Structure formats: C-alpha cells, structure tokens
Amino acid sequence: MSSFYNSKAIFEQAVLFMPGGVNSPVRAFKSVNNPPIIVKKAGGSKIYDVDNNEYIDYVMSYGPMILGHADKRVVNAIKESAGNGFSYGATTEKEIELARLIVKYFPSVEMIRLVNSGTEAVMSALRLARGFTGKDKVIKFEGCYHGHSDSMLVKAGSGSLTTSVPSSAGIPLNLSKDTFVADYNDINSVKSIFLNNKNEIAAVIIEPIAANMGVVVPEYNFLKELIAVTHENNALIIFDEVITGFRVSKGGAQGLYKLAPDLTCLGKIIGGGLPIGAFGGKKNIMSYLSPEGPVYQAGTLSGNPVCVSAGIATIKAVEDDNALDKANSMTEYLVSSLEEQLKKYNDKITINSISSLFTVFFKKPPVTCFKDVIGSDLKTFKKFFGLILKEGIFAPPSQYEALFISSAHSKGDIDKTAAAFKKAFKEIFE
Ligand SMILES: *Cc1c(COP(=O)(O)O)cnc(C)c1O
Description:
Helices cover 38% and strands 16% of the residues. It has helices spanning 5-17, 72-82, 93-105, 118-133, 173-176, 187-196, 220-232, 252-257, 283-286, 305-320, 323-337, 339-344, 370-373, 378-390, 411-429; strands at 39-43, 46-49, 54-57, 111-115, 137-141, 154-156, 164-166, 179-182, 201-206, 236-240, 263-267, 277-281, 350-354, 357-361, 393-394, 403-404. The chain has a 7-stranded mixed sheet, with helices on both faces. The protein has a 4-stranded mixed sheet with strand order 1-2-3-15. The longest helix is centred in the last third of the chain and has 19 residues, at 411-429.
C-alpha cells in the first residue's frame, strides 16, 4: 500500500552524518525494525512523510503539540516575535507573562526559572533540592523518565535497595550511587530507602502520572502518602510534570489530584513545540538560586523570546478554546470505540488512559508498575505498529511510550484510528 521509497533513501543519508540517523534515539524505530519515516510537514492532527503518505499523528512531538501541528495562533506569535529579534541576553516582559500564566495554574509554584529543555529543568531542580537541603541522595522510580542527565540515567542494581547502576555508558558509578530506584505505586519501597538512608535524601522525584513507560496511572493514596513520607524525612518532593503540565489539567497532575509538591518541572506544552523547560516552587526554595542564592544555574538562551511567545500563545489557546476538554473527549471516544475488542481480547490487551494520553499494552490487565509494563509482548507490539502505520496511523515506535491526542484530532480521525486498531487486532489474534 504505502511506499516508503524516499524515506528509506533519505535515512541512508542520515546514518552517514548522524549516529543512528537521528538526533534522539526513539526516532530510529529500532525496536520495531522498520526504517523510520522521514517527515516533510505537519498540520493539525496530520503528519506527512517524504513519500507523501498522510498519517493521523499520535506522536505529536512526544507531548508539546496539545493544539495539533502548526496552530495558526502559535504560528502568528512565533512570526511576530521572530521579527523583533530572537535572542537578547536580557530580560523581556514576555518571560514575566509566561511565569504569571504558570503561577496562576500551579498553586504550589510561586516563582519559576526558565531553561531550554525538560532535561535541564530536572537537572537544575535536583541541584536546587540538594543545595536547599544540604543532602546529596535522591530517589526516583523505575520506569519514570526525567531526561538524560547523569543522575537520572540509573537502574536498580542487583541489591535494588542499596545500589543503583548507570543505565548508560559514560556515567560514573560514584554518581549513580546517589540515586535510589523505588517501585511506582509501592510506598513501602520508598519507606525502606528512607529507612536505610536516614537524613541523607535530598529529594524524591516522580512523574505524578507516568507516561514514559507507557501510561501508568498512580493510585491517589500512593501519591498522597509519598508527599507525607518525603516531608517526614525532611526531603523535597519534585513532580516532573514535563508531559502532564497543561495537559491532564491546566495545573497538571497536581491540579487534577489537588496535591502540592515542593518543586515542579515543566517543558513540552509550555513551549508549544519550541525548545523550553522550567522549574518552580515556593519563594523560600527558589530564592536559593543564583543570583539570589548559592545554587548556580544559567543559560544563554533561557527565556528565549520566540520560545516564550509560542508557549504563551499555546497556553492562551488552551485557556480560550477548551482544548483540553476536546482532546480528552476524543481520547474517551477512542477507548470506548474499542470496548468490544477489549472484552474479546481481555487476556491480551490492556489500554491505560487518562486525559489525552493512552497506551495499548499487549498484556493482560492490570498494568500499574514497571514490572507489569515489561511483561508486555513486544513481538505483538511490533506487528501492531507496522499494521497501523500501513493504515495511516503514526504512533510512537515503542511499547513504552504514551500516545498523545490533541485538540485538533477530529471524530473522523478517531473513527479511522479505531477501525485501523480493530483490523490490526483481528489480523494479530485471529
Ligand atoms: C520529555 C521529558 C523530559 C525531558 O525533556 P526534554 O525536553 O526531552 O529534555 C523529562 N521528564 C519527562 C516526564 C518527560 O516526559
């Protein structure tokens, strides 16, 4: 059906000049052993490759494109801003406007600092937490992704309560020893780490809704207890809302669950598809940052006026347009359209979804932690990915990713998608 002739030819060029042919690993399609599609352009809910295949897009740049691609309001904001120069090395009023918008919807955030990526936001928030508490160690959760900074690229070692090991080459063992890995939705795993490391933990960082091992929804009581346990131990709780901020509610997962972390990391939607990140919290913590305080953090392009303009336009469109409700209702519609299939293949498929995020796991329900996630049948996923791609559905090429729905996805898009999923399930299971 679809030809991938041009994509293949261009990818052969790409691998000559870029490791793996890509600038970020998941784009290489390695886990689905397909050559990746090369993108020509995108608009609304659609993305087009260099062979002129049209896809309904569920990658959506892995999160930023809540309004869909090339939304007119954002395009105009970018054009207008770029015409006035695109980096100054001095403060603009726009930065204050974006900060105000974030503070308005995140009551736990009184002050923010803008950076250039989610990775940078997390890395800086961790430094701030260490500087503020005077402690070195941190706890993260298996399956949560917080960008590619050294201290976050660790996995549980053999004695998981005592040691972690780097999950990438190039990370000093000494550094990975300061990061502990706990189990998502399991408060006891956190308590044991605190117990074994009295007064040594600076912070606990979590995706309050996990979306980087596929979508895994937290139990409310787990999150609530996590905050309490962290505070009992004089550590800071950091919510990494790089995906969930301005998506699961305007105030992120903390808005949805009415919970208040000490520090919040943002990215993706707050830049509307241009590079950005931010971290923020209460004044007494944020004032530890340089130039007010002793924790150093800086950036040549931080608060970039074009990125900030795209972010403001995106958040304002979200405010004016019920964008989140639209995206949420399309997600509900898709999941309900697959109800019959979920019943029929109830020992083979789990769909986890919340707001405008979902993942189809090829595993019997439930999927509530990393151990469940890695029980998924990757061979079946690979088949599924190839089959729906042929039907014009662009999904992330990995079982361990969320699919993203935007306010530009129409009922027609969802009907087509549901039909493609049903056809693929039938071909795989019958
Ligand atoms: C994407 C992501 C990051 C990293 O953001 P980058 O902009 O890719 O550096 C961090 N945390 C979470 C939860 C993310 O989804």
